[in-house]
């Protein structure tokens, strides 16, 4: 009797499984972005395994994957476990590659060349430091708003704002200063009024340089919630 062999396909990466799950569920990127309150660019980066382009720590990325699957109505456990496994492997491979490069380095040198190289490094380092300090003074701070997206239509009366600015800059939302982390990330809950809400962000350095950003969020009350029968008029 002739034995038949079956070739097993390698396990797909978690990003490909996420994309397949979304497509099989019939949920578009735009719809999933609204459900998760996360930028479409970050969702695309997640589905393409470009985790380094998602400006959150791996712990937060794990929560994003959990939210991704939950909003599709699917069990997230196997996806989260696979991400943790792959992320741990990737973190282990990075220093290994660095060690291989160091082992292949040729340490043979001439003392005179070493002295000249040392002086050059010091001079370049000082010049680079001065240029960085001048740039920090004359340039306005960076300001990135991750969520919500401009023009978002929501039925939630309170939204959570996520963004990032320079670590030395302060951040204000609608004129009110809010705290940000040492790396510049900030998060704040904003109550909305019915209709169009204008949210103004201002990042400011100690030297007075500012960066402004304005987002418009539309809050619509859920039409499925009927008014109380004896509600007093405003």
Sequence-ordered SSE layout with sheet pairings:
Layout: H1 14-25, H2 29-36, H3 40-47, H4 58-71, H5 77-103, H6 111-138, E1 143-147, E2 153-154, E3 158-165, E4 170-173, E5 176-178, E6 185-191, E7 195-204, E8 210-219
Parallel strand pairs: 2-8
Antiparallel strand pairs: 1-3, 3-6, 4-5, 4-7, 7-8
Helix pairs in contact: 1-5, 4-5
Précis, in short:
The chain has 234 residues and is of the alpha+beta class. The protein has helices at 14-25, 29-36, 40-47, 58-71, 77-103, 111-138, and strands spanning 143-147, 153-154, 158-165, 170-173, 176-178, 185-191, 195-204, 210-219. Among the domains are: 14-89, 434 Repressor (Amino-terminal Domain), CATH 1.10.260; 143-219, Immunoglobulin-like, CATH 2.60.40.
Structure description:
Among the domains are: about 15-90, 434 Repressor (Amino-terminal Domain) (Orthogonal Bundle), CATH 1.10.260.40; about 145-220, Immunoglobulin-like (Sandwich), CATH 2.60.40.10. About 40% of the residues lie in helices and about 20% in strands. The protein contains six helices and eight strands, in the order H-H-H-H-H-H-E-E-E-E-E-E-E-E. Strand 4 and strand 5 form a beta hairpin. Helix 4 (about 60-70) packs antiparallel against helix 5. The relative contact order is 0.09. It comes from Candidatus Magasanikbacteria bacterium CG10_big_fil_rev_8_21_14_0_10_47_10. Keywords: Membrane, Transmembrane, Transmembrane helix. Pfam families: Glucodextran_B, HTH_25.
């Amino acid at each position: 009797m002739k034995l038949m062999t079956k070739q097993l396909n390698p396990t797909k990466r978690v990003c490909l499984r996420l994309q397949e799950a979304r497509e099989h569920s019939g949920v578009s990127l735009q719809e999933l972005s609204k459900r998760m309150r996360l930028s479409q660019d970050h969702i695309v980066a997640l589905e393409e395994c470009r985790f380094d382009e998602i400006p959150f720590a791996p712990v937060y990325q794990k929560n994003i994957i959990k939210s991704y699957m939950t909003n599709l109505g699917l069990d997230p456990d196997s996806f989260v476990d696979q991400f943790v496994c792959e992320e741990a492997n990737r973190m282990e491979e990075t220093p290994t590659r660095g060690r291989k490069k160091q082992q292949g380095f040729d340490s043979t040198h001439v003392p005179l060349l070493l002295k000249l190289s040392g002086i050059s490094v010091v001079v370049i380092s000082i010049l680079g430091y001065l240029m960085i300090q001048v740039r920090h003074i004359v340039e306005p701070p960076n300001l990135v708003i991750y969520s919500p997206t401009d023009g978002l239509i929501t039925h939630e009366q309170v939204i959570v704002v996520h963004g990032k600015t320079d670590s030395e800059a302060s951040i204000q939302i609608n004129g009110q200063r809010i705290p940000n982390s040492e790396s510049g990330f900030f998060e704040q809950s904003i109550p909305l009024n019915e209709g169009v809400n204008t949210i103004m962000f201002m990042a400011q350095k100690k030297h007075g340089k500012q960066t402004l950003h304005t987002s418009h969020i539309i809050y619509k009350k859920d039409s499925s919630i009927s008014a109380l029968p004896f509600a007093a008029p405003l």
